[in-house]
Design brief:
single chain, about 375 residues, alpha/beta, eight-stranded mixed β-sheet, 13 helices, 8 strands
Length: about 375
């Protein structure tokens, strides 16, 4: 019994160390010896800008104006907006815009169907060489589109994703998110240098029209789409200079919990749909990297709980006692930070990491619960 408990402890600890440190170290080392540089060039293919909107009367006119202002050759851009069963003033605004701009196309879904379904419709309406998929609530610098498509000059690249920028907040959740984002963007850069990214940022990515795969409406197109393109032999790369400025309030604990729970749910559904890519005998290190950066990470609450529970039964040495005390201190810091933030206090930024890690873990556990309950997360309300 003691041997089994020790095995659970070390497997859990080793898996957590691999997810957040080991895998990254391997990527850094591999990038030193076998980096796959992206062959960029200033190219100007014709582009169909795709925007899906649900009740976006506040943003949609400004979004279209932002896209019309891109530093891109005139006549090479069309804008396609699919309204996902909107019942506010979005459709009326789109009619006015379309009357003034003949290269703006619109489609109105009779009932709400979700983002992926809307994108599938928009792709069928598209007539240009490249699809630029973006959100109604984001704005881009004038150069964003040009910077994004230059990576498509590389024949090995089938998808290019950019960098979202969120409104900074003063709370601990915002501080934790910023630390996570720095880690995440570094990881994405290394993944792109060594192999490929596994997914794209929903608010900013580009795909050649002939590579776009029609995706089941209940799946996340920003995740499953790049995986299907990867299956065809093309990679997804990260272009940090292409930016999407997201108009969303700084996150609080509730907002981040809801968002991360949804990401976990839809991500796991997509991963199960594309599970054949996790076969290391067929896909080698690519499969190992996908398992490490997605499957094992999304199962973080499982590893954290098994580490803590197994540690409780292993107090027969100073090492295990110290390990338990460290875990208790970590979770105590998160609980203290939670209650202080709820009461309007701003404790030291050191508390941000425990609070944010625990928020992500609890949200991931909730996402797993929803997955097992058969939810799809196909429809959701954007947090304002």
């Amino acid at each position: 019994m003691m041997l089994l408990t020790e095995m659970i402890f070390w497997i859990s600890l080793g898996t957590l160390a691999h997810i957040y440190f080991g895998h990254l170290v391997v990527l850094v080392v591999m990038s030193k010896f076998g980096q796959r540089a992206v062959l960029k060039a200033d190219i100007f293919p014709s582009v169909s800008i795709i925007i899906c909107a649900y009740n976006e009367e506040r943003h949609i006119a400004r979004k279209i104006a932002n896209c019309l202002d891109f530093d891109y050759p005139p006549g090479k851009v069309e804008i396609i907006v699919v309204s996902d069963g909107s019942h506010d003033g979005t459709n009326a605004i789109l009619e006015t815009v379309r009357a003034n701009h003949p290269f703006v196309k619109t489609h109105y879904m009779l009932e709400r169907s979700g983002k992926t379904a809307c994108q599938n419709v928009a792709v069928q309406m598209a007539s240009n060489e490249v699809l630029f998929l973006t959100d109604a609530t984001t704005a881009h610098p004038r150069t964003a589109l040009r910077l994004l498509v230059r990576s498509l000059h590389d024949p090995s690249v089938g998808c290019v994703t950019g960098k979202p920028v969120f409104n900074p907040g003063t709370g601990l959740i915002s501080a934790g998110q910023q630390k996570r984002d720095r880690y995440e963007y570094y990881l994405r850069g290394k993944l792109g240098q060594v192999k490929t990214l596994f997914g794209a940022q929903d608010c900013i990515y580009a795909i050649p029209r002939n590579l776009y795969p029609t995706i089941r409406p209940d799946l996340d197109s920003g995740f499953v789409g790049p995986l299907k393109i990867l299956e065809k032999g093309y990679r997804t790369v990260f272009e940090p200079e292409a930016v999407a400025i997201v108009d969303r309030r700084p996150p609080n604990i509730k907002d981040e919990f809801i968002r991360r729970s949804r990401i976990m749910l839809r991500g796991m559904r997509g991963l199960l749909h594309m599970r054949h890519l996790m076969n290391p005998f067929k896909y080698g290190f690519l499969a190992v990297s996908l398992i490490s950066s997605r499957l094992l990470r999304w199962l973080t609450p499982v590893w954290l709980v098994s580490l803590l529970v197994s540690n409780v039964f292993l107090l027969n040495s100073p090492f295990y006692l110290g390990a338990l005390l460290l875990q208790v201190a970590f979770y105590a810091a998160a609980v203290i930070a939670f209650f202080l933030e709820q009461r309007g206090y701003r404790p030291n930024v050191v508390f941000s990491v425990p609070l944010y890690v625990c928020t992500l873990a609890v949200a991931a556990a909730d996402g797993l619960r929803r997955l097992l309950a058969g939810e799809s997360g196909q429809l959701w309300q954007t947090r304002r």
